[in-house]
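Reminder to self: C-alpha cells first, then the designed residues, so the page reads top to bottom the way the pipeline ran.
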C-alpha cells in the first residue's frame, strides 16, 4: 500500500483526556496539529468517573468547556465516609464548598465519557484533526522533525510528537529507542524497570441513587460516585495481585470479577443500609483493571515527549490522575511558547535546542510534584483498605474528627501548583488561597 504522507506542526498520539485537552490547547494557539487514535472512535462510552479538582477545572474553563461539564456533572462536593461493615456514616462533609472558597472552583464529578465528549465537541475541523483507526507503530527522526508511522501504512511528519497514549505507550518506547541512539544515559534504568502494582480496581456503571461516598470494608477500600443514575466504583483488590511488579500489568478474567462481586455484595455503601448487591443488580457495564503506580523521571528525548498516563499512573482513589494529565498539557504549551515564542503557528521550523529547553521545563515542573502525588494516592488507598494495623483506627476514630482544612491540605497543596494556560481567560473566581505563580511553584520543587 502506498504511504500517505502529510505534514503538520504537532502529532498527538492518543485521543484520551490528555490528547484531546492538548488538541484544544494547540487549537487555541492556531497550531497545525493532527491527533492519531488507535481505536475506531474518539470518546467511546467506556471507563470510570473522573473527579475534577479546581486546578483541572480552571484549565477546562479557559478552554471554554467547563460550563458544559458543570451543567451535566454531579453538582455537589459532598462526601460520605462510611464503615461498610456496620453501614455507619462516620462523616459527611461538603468539601466542595471548602474548595470553592479556597481555590475558586468546587469539586466536579463527571464520567470520563462526558469529559471526552465535551472536549471532542470543542475541536474545530474534527474530521481533519482527529484521525481514528491510526495505531502508531514507529517514529523516525528527520533532520528537522519526526515522522510518525501508523499501522495502515500512513506517515505524519511534524516538528514534535506528543505521546498521550496511556499506560502501554508506544511513544514512550520509541522515545527510549531514540534516546539509546543519541544519549543512552539520559533515561534512568528505573524508568524501564518493573512498576509497582499493589492494587486493582473494579469499576462499573449502574442505575442507582446519586450519592458520593467512600466506603470501607476490611481489606478493600472503595470509592464510589453515582451520578444521573450511574455509578462508578473503584475498589482495591486482594492480596493475590498485590506486589505484582511487572512492566505488563496483571490481567483479570471474568471469574476474577465474579469473585469481587461475591466478596463485596454485603458491603453497605449508602443511607438506609443500601448494599453493593443493589448496585450489582443494576449494572450497565463493569470491568476489573490493575492499578500500576509510577512516575517516570524522563519524559522526552529529541523531538519526542510523552505526557499523561504514559508517564505517570496514580491510584484513582485520590482523583489526581486526570487532573495531572490536564495540568501537563497546559505546562507543555506554556513551555513551548516560552522557549519558541508566542506565534508558534507561524514558525515554520521549531529549533531542537529550544524544544529541549521547553521539554526540560515540563519535566522539572512535573516530576517531583507528580511523584509526591502518586505516593500520596497509594497511601490513601492503603488507609481506605485498612491494610496496615493502624489504618482502621485512623479511618474510624481519627479521620472523622479531623478538621476539614487538615484533611484537604494535601489536595490543596497540589491544587495551588496547578498551571494556568498562557493566554485564554477564565471566568473571575474569588478565592482565599488561589494558586502559586510559576516562579513560586518551581521554587517548591
Ligand atoms: C477506575 C478509575 C477511576 C479514575 N478516577 C479518576 C478521578 O476521579 N480523577 C482523576 O483525575 N483521574 C482519575 N482516573 C485516572 C484518569 O482516568 C487517567 O489518568 C486519564 O484518563 C488518562 O488519560 P490519558 O489520555 O493519558 O490516557 P488514556 O485514557 O489511556 O488514553 C490513551 C489513548 O491513547 C490511545 N492509544 C494507545 N496506544 C496508541 C497507539 N499506539 N497509537 C494511537 N493511539 C493509541 C488509546 O486508545 C487511548 O484512547 C481514574 C482511572 C481509573 C482507572
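Designed residues (445 positions):
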Amino acid at each position: 500500500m502506498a504511504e500517505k504522507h502529510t505534514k503538520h506542526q504537532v502529532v498527538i498520539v492518543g485521543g484520551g483526556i490528555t490528547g484531546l485537552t492538548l488538541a484544544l490547547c494547540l487549537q487555541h494557539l492556531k497550531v497545525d496539529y493532527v491527533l492519531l487514535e488507535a481505536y475506531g472512535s474518539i470518546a467511546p462510552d467506556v471507563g470510570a468517573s473522573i473527579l475534577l479538582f479546581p486546578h483541572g477545572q480552571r484549565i477546562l474553563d479557559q478552554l471554554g468547556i467547563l460550563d458544559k461539564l458543570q451543567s451535566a456533572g454531579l453538582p455537589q462536593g459532598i462526601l460520605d465516609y462510611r464503615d461498610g461493615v456496620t453501614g455507619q456514616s462516620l462523616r459527611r462533609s461538603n468539601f466542595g464548598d471548602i474548595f470553592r472558597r479556597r481555590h475558586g472552583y468546587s469539586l466536579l464529578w463527571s464520567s470520563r465519557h462526558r469529559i471526552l465528549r465535551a472536549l471532542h465537541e470543542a475541536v474545530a475541523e474534527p474530521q481533519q484533526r482527529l484521525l481514528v483507526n491510526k495505531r502508531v507503530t514507529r517514529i523516525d527522526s528527520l533532520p528537522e522533525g519526526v515522522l510518525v508511522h501508523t499501522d495502515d501504512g500512513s506517515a505524519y511528519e511534524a516538528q514534535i510528537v506528543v505521546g498521550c497514549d496511556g499506560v502501554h505507550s508506544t511513544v514512550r518506547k520509541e522515545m527510549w529507542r531514540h534516546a539509546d541512539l543519541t544519549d543512552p544515559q539520559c533515561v534512568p534504568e528505573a524508568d524501564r524497570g518493573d512498576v509497582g502494582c499493589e492494587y486493582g480496581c473494579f469499576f462499573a456503571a449502574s442505575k442507582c441513587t446519586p450519592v458520593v461516598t467512600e466506603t470501607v470494608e476490611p481489606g478493600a477500600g472503595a470509592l464510589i460516585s453515582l451520578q444521573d443514575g450511574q455509578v462508578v466504583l473503584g475498589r482495591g483488590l486482594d492480596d493475590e495481585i498485590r506486589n505484582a511488579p511487572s512492566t505488563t500489568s496483571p490481567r483479570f478474567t471474568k471469574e476474577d470479577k465474579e469473585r469481587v462481586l461475591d466478596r463485596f455484595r454485603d458491603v453497605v455503601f449508602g443511607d438506609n443500609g443500601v448494599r453493593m448487591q443493589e448496585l450489582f443488580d443494576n449494572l450497565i457495564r463493569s470491568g476489573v483493571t490493575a492499578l500500576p503506580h509510577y512516575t517516570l523521571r524522563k519524559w522526552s528525548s529529541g523531538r519526542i515527549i510523552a505526557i499523561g498516563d504514559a508517564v505517570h499512573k496514580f491510584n484513582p482513589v485520590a482523583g489526581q490522575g486526570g487532573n495531572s494529565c490536564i495540568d501537563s498539557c497546559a505546562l507543555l504549551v506554556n513551555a513551548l511558547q516560552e522557549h519558541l515564542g508566542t506565534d508558534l503557528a507561524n514558525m515554520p521550523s521549531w529549533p531542537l535546542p529550544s524544544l529541549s529547553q521547553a521539554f526540560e521545563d515540563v519535566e522539572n515542573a512535573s516530576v517531583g510534584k507528580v511523584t509526591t502525588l502518586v505516593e500520596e494516592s497509594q497511601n490513601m488507598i492503603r488507609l481506605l483498605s485498612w491494610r496496615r494495623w493502624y489504618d482502621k483506627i485512623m479511618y474510624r476514630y481519627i479521620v472523622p474528627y479531623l478538621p476539614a482544612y487538615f484533611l484537604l491540605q494535601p489536595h490543596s497543596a497540589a491544587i495551588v501548583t496547578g498551571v494556568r494556560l498562557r493566554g485564554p481567560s477564565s471566568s473571575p473566581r474569588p478565592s482565599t488561597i488561589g494558586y502559586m505563580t510559576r516562579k513560586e511553584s518551581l521554587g517548591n520543587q
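The chain has a mean pLDDT of 85.
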